[in-house]
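Peptidase M55 D-aminopeptidase
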Amino acid sequence: MRIFISADMEGITGLVDADDVQPGGRDYERGRLAMTGDVNAAVRGALRAGATEIVVNDAHGPMRNLMTDTLHPAARLIRGKPKTMGMIEGLTGAHDALICVGYHARAGAHGVLSHSFMGHEIEDMWLDDRATGEIGLVHAAAAALGVRLAALTGDDAACAEATAWDASIATAPVKYVRSRFAAELRPENEARAAIEDTILAVLNEMPADDGEHTSSDAVSDAESTLAVRWQSSAVAETLLGIPGVTAVDPRTVQAVGTPPDLFRQFGVWMRVASALTNQAPYC
């Protein structure tokens, strides 16, 4: 069984503030340790379920957050950026399941450190006219590749967002939102036991690997429409120079393609937006 773990940071056990998750923040180094602890719990759950290969993609910010010296030795780590597919770099149809660790709710949602990819620079996103964020876009891209998003960990708002997209996703809430920068925390040992046990249970329910799963299995070429409303009209205007990008209104652009192709193109949109703006991620 081949497992892919995408690890974000805002939904990690104990973390509630920008200083917990941003390089240079006063608690960022503690946040890195906490992130590694949650990922290690996910790895342990996958191993108990019989995983033979586990790839972890560091999917937050600089994508150099996980502590390589304490990461579980059974995991292979994809680290650094830029990455063509960002949060799901390395995910292919050859993987049997995707696990999202430390995820958060979309922009505008009542969730801990809620945002969509870029702090407040992205005001809203829609996939086929449905409001989405990182969870929905990752789920759609994985599904198009033929990979099931099997489990997700984060605050209770992120878990609810995931099951709204797909009721079959197993979730492990590690904290409960009180405000965007406050939460009721589960104790670390309890939260990580929940992560491990949830992943063990959902992977144990999956059909046994017959060894014949390939990257062409269940791949979909169905197209979707991704629309993004930016805080700055300058971003939207500049993105219109990319073939296939069209205007919805002065601050909103859209494109049509398969979800993996849209995910890849959206990474380019974010690099353009980063070059044009200098916004703090959380405000």
